[in-house]
Structures are given as C-alpha cells and as structure tokens.
Recover the amino acids of this structure.
C-alpha cells in the first residue's frame, strides 16, 4: 500500500512509520515538526536524543526499511498543499497522528486551549475534506483516545465506540438505536477528540469515507525493535509534566532518584498499551480495512487497566524509589473503575504485550543511560485545570 503518515515524526508516529515501511508499504511522512518547536517552548528536550528528521529517514533507508519519504507541512492550516500532496501521492490510506496530544499542555493557558482546538479540529477536518476533494477511496486511520469516554465511577463496561439503546416513539413503543457512546471529555485535548468522532460520523455518512478510529490507552515504553537498530532511529522519551505518560515518568523518576509523583490519591484507573502494540494495531487496522459503506469502525486500543497508585508501588518495589503524593492539577474523580471491551483488535490478530518487570527494565535502562540529559525541574506538572 501507499500510506501517508500525518505526524510521523512524533512519539507514536515515528515507530509506526518504520513498521509500515519495513513491512513493504510505501510511506510518506507528513509533519510540521511543531512537536520539536514545543520542546523549545517548554525548555525541555526528549530524554533520548532524537536525530533530525532527514537523518532519521536516511538511517531507516540504510537499514533496509523500504520506501520512506518526508514532506514538511502543517495540515491544520495549509489545505491547498495538503490536497496537492494527497492528489500527487495517491495514497491507499492515511494515518492521522497530526494532533496536539497532551491533556496537560492543552490546559496550560487560554492560548494553549485555543491552539489545541484550532490545530486538532482543523487538522481532522482538512484531512477529511482533502480525501473527498481528491476523489479517491482512501481509508483514514485515526489515533483517538480512551479519554473520550471519560472516567466515571458507575462501573459500566465501555463498549467499542457504540452503545445500543432503546428509544420510545410517539406510540410508546421502543425503537432500537446504536449511538456513539456518550462523550465525557476531561480536558480540552480530550474534547477535541470527541469532536473528531462527529466529523468522522458526518463524512462517513455523507461522503462514504472509510474510517477506523482507534481509541488508545496511555502508551508506555519507548522503543520498538526497529527504533533500536541505530542510535539515529531512537524514539522520543517524554518525561516532563506536560507530555510524559505516567508509567514512563515513574520509571524515569526512579532512575534519577526523584520521588514518584502520584497526583492526588492515585486511585484513578486508566487503560494502557505498550508502544510496540500501538504500532501493531495501526498495521492491523490498515491491512484489514472496513468494507465500502461500513459505518465508522471504532476499536478500543488498550491491552490492560491499572490504577495509577498500583503502578507507582510496582515501580517502587522494583527500584526502591519513594512514592510521593502531590496535589492533583486535574478536575477528576479521585477514584474510578474502568472496564473496557477490546475484542476488535484482538480479533484482527493483536497479541498483547503485558506489563512485566522485564519490559520495565528496558525502559529503566534507557532512562539511566540518558539521565544526564534530564531536567528535574521539568518533572512536576504545572498545568492546572483550575483557574
């Protein structure tokens, strides 16, 4: 297949691009490199030294990973160039990572809230419009988030996107309906992902665009087998309070002798997936597209559920680190239960990577190797959900 990977320079996009190219697909990475600019804004780099994009791609080619190219483009603002790229490249599929991905960053200030909305929603709509205007049957695979469902305390099992309900009609009889599971975003970032769902619904209904929406859990891990082949292929490792994911943050903190910062009670239950599985899910979704005319296909892309405090205690047992409770900057329940269905990707062949001390050891080794690059003053989350 010919595949455009939007946001292919990022934490999930880069290893996915390598995986797809290595599998024999022709890959075009499209990225504005804004995530690297955000590093400069925040004054904190990836813990791992990530190579310039051209060097990364040359190294991938040198290691025989197939056809991979790069186009610098902001898909949220430069529609004409986006449409030209789609028309000229003639992709069979587009993978959409081109969104501001961090909930804390989206809540830093009024500017960050507005930037996240403008960037994320415009990017998604531009991509859908370009697919329609290109007059090609292109399968769009989008990286969504489990956060669209919210984290309530009722204990209900979260389905894969859709909820079957009964609606009373004027005669008092009940009619069957299948609706998008009610959204309950917990940040401006999550709110933009709920809007993505409605955009996909409309363009699928009106223009028959084929869409797979992957509601992903929190990603842990850093590298895949391909990103470990060369120092210039290494993936990002974010540890700061805005972009660092919780388990990676804990392991990095432990490697630096910094207390494991648990926000509030730590009773928040969250879905998780290893970066290797995230990459595999993208490939599986692309290689088994929805049929023409099928409604938006939604999969819950998560392999296990853990309470944040339990993860902290697990890392503490392995590393001897101290667990420290800090004020929670978010407006959320201090405790919740999360039960999810995730049969879709398992049915396509995903073999889940479970949390283990061995895999945590790999991340610890990476964190220890590069801990001299860490800025400990950037570990605390200073973005607040409260005015």
């Amino acid at each position: 297949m010919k595949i455009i990977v939007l946001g292919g320079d990022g934490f999930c996009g880069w290893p996915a691009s390598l995986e797809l190219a290595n599998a024999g697909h022709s890959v075009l990475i499209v990225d504005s490199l804004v995530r690297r600019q955000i590093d400069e804004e925040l004054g904190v780099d990836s813990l791992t030294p990530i190579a310039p994009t051209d060097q990364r791609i040359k190294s991938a080619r040198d290691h025989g990973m197939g056809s991979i190219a790069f186009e610098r483009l902001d898909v949220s603002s430069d529609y004409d160039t986006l449409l030209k790229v789609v028309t000229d490249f003639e992709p069979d599929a587009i993978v959409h990572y081109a969104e501001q991905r961090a909930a804390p960053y989206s809540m830093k200030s009024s500017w960050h809230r507005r930037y996240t909305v403008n960037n994320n929603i415009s990017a998604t709509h531009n991509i859908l419009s370009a697919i329609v205007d290109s007059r090609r049957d292109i399968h769009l695979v989008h990286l969504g988030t489990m956060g669209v469902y919210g984290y309530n305390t009722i204990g209900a099992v979260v389905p894969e996107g859709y909820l079957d309900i009964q609606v009373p009609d004027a005669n008092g009889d009940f009619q069957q309906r299948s609706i998008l599971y009610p959204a309950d975003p917990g940040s401006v970032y999550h709110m933009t992902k709920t809007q993505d769902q409605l955009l996909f619904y409309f363009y699928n209904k009106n223009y028959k665009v084929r869409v797979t929406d992957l509601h992903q859990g929190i990603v842990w891990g850093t590298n895949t087998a391909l990103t470990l082949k060369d120092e210039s292929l290494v993936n990002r490792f974010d540890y700061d309070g805005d972009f660092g994911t919780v388990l990676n943050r804990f392991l990095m903190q432990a490697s630096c002798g910094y207390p494991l910062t648990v926000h509030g009670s730590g009773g928040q239950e969250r879905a998780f997936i290893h970066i290797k599985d995230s990459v595999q899910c993208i490939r599986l979704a692309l290689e088994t597209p929805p049929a023409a005319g099928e409604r938006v296909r939604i999969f819950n892309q998560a392999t296990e559920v853990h309470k944040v405090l339990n993860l902290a205690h697990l890392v503490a047992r392995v590393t001897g680190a101290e667990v420290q409770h800090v004020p929670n900057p978010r407006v959320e329940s201090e405790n919740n239960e999360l039960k999810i269905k995730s049969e879709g990707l398992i049915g396509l062949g995903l073999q889940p990577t479970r949390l283990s001390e061995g895999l945590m050891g790999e991340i610890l080794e990476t964190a220890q190797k590069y801990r001299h690059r860490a800025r400990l003053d950037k570990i605390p989350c200073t973005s607040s959900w409260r005015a």
